[in-house]
Structures are given as C-alpha cells and as structure tokens.
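Assess this one:

_____
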Amino acid sequence: MTGRDQAPLLEVRDLVVHFYTRAGVVQGARGVSFKVMHGQTLGIVGESGSGKSVSVQAVMGLINTPGRIISGDIRFKGRSIMDAAGRDYVRRVRGKEISMIFQDPMTSLNPVFTVGTQITEVLRHHLKMNKKAARKRAMELLELVDINAPGKRLKQYPHELSGGMRQRVMIATALACEPELIIADEPTTALDVTIQAQILELLADLQERLNVSVIMITHDLGVIAQLCHRLAVMYAGRIVEEGDAVKVFENPGHPYTMGLLGATPRLDKVEDRMVCINGAPPNLIAPPRGCAFSPRCQMAREECSNPQSLAYITKDRQVCCWCAAKSREREN
C-alpha cells in the first residue's frame, strides 16, 4: 500500500456549522468528523435534518448566509480549505476534482439550456477545451452513463428527458473532469424504484471501473448495503456511529442505528405493523446537553444526560453511546 493510499483523500475534523435565523441559532453540524480514503465509498445515513447535507455542502464550499462554518477543519488531499487561500482552492477544485450529484435533477439542471451546453460548459471552464473537443467528450460521457443516441440527447432540454435520463446526465456532468471524489446527495430519491436500481447499479459500476471515491448520502439503508464500504450514522447534527458497513449492519452499536435497522421492512418476515422509532428528533436551536437520542431511547440511563464523544469500541469502529461504552468495558 502506497503513502497516497494510506492518507485520506478527504478528512473532516470537528466541523461545526450554525444557521442564524429569527427563531434562533440552528446547530446544523455539531462536531462532525469523518474520513474518505482513495477508492472508498462512504455512506452517510440519518433522518431529515440530521446534518448529512450540511456536512457535505461545507466540503463543497456551499454554506452561504444565513449559514456559517464556526469551527473545525476540512482537508482535501492534505490541504485545508478553511482559510482564505483554502477557499480559493476549493473554488478551483469544485466541479473538477470534487463534484456533486444533487437530489433532484429537474431543479439542478438549467431548463433554458440544452444538455450539451451544460455538460460542455464544465469541460470548457475547468479543462479549457475548445467547443469541438468539449462536444466530443460530452458524447463520450453520455455513452459512459448508458444514454442512447448521445448526439440527439445533447441537443435536447432537460424537460424532454425522463427522470432517469436526467439523473444520468447529472452523473455524466459530475464525471466530466474525472474527479477524485463524487458526493451523491440522495441521487435516487426523486426516481421510481426500477430507475433507482438502474442508477445505483450504474454508480457501483462507475466507482469500480474509475476507482473514484464516493460519499453517498441517503435515507435508504439498502443503498448503503449495496454500495458502501463504510457507514456513518448521523443524528441531531452529530455522527453517532461509524465503521465498516457490513459490521455495522451485522452488529449495530448505537440504539439509533438499531432503531433504523429495526424500522427497515424485510422481505423474509411478515409484520402486522411496521416498527418505528418513537418520538421526534430534537430542536437543534436548543439541543439536549447529553445524548440527543436519549429522550427516544429505550436504553437511556442517568449518565446519558452527560456529553459522550465518539469513541472506539473496536479498532475501526466508533460509537457515541454510554451504553455501548459500558458494554465494551464489560467485554474487556
């Protein structure tokens, strides 16, 4: 293994992001830390409002007013993007070395420009290609994502394509400059189940063939199981569990992870009623002092009112839970 492979491609350390609203300061990310290695797919899962999208938008330099990064560090290829020079750096690499696939292609693609114009714009801006070379590369990219008649599609507008084809155009645009990291923010949410499966299969194939690193944000644990090497579970602006995806699925350590897995429908088991996690996520204007999940947790105890940091329970597994920590102490 080379030094390049050992060093993380992306490292986020203790990221804190606040949003200043009339109702108060919303703590969107409360000390988020994670790493993405070269060629690795990291899945980030959690309920709406848990801080998944906020964390990756910070990586892309997309936190705008009323949001603000309060503290922490974000390092891409060993270089911090948090100071003034770093912000200039992330503007240069955004779309070129780091690209993003957004949730809804119909609102992400510009309706007044053709597909060809939008893909070639990326190539001409970042790679300084001329018009002819950019068009040729755009056709290659559409073929790469399995869009038929690419010459015809380049002349069409987004509304003339199906939802699945629009998402493939988004993926082609993300791949245009051969990035080292792709962030996919719930890329299948707006699609029907059949098209979802096709897009996920395409992403898995491209990740393997191109050896690109991927951050996959989703509500769907099935997507994580299919695509991801590692899994980070987020709740109330924090990562509460992180580790090898297979091991987390086999033996979840945090009660919230257990709840998510328990609430996932199974084909091999018929239930009269679906399992759910009782209660609601906390208000991030005034989050609980201790474990944010404790008001909904059946395993909660007195010490859960005290802050608990993300701690190793095995060599490559971290859980932010007093119960998991106590269980680990008994095992030792």
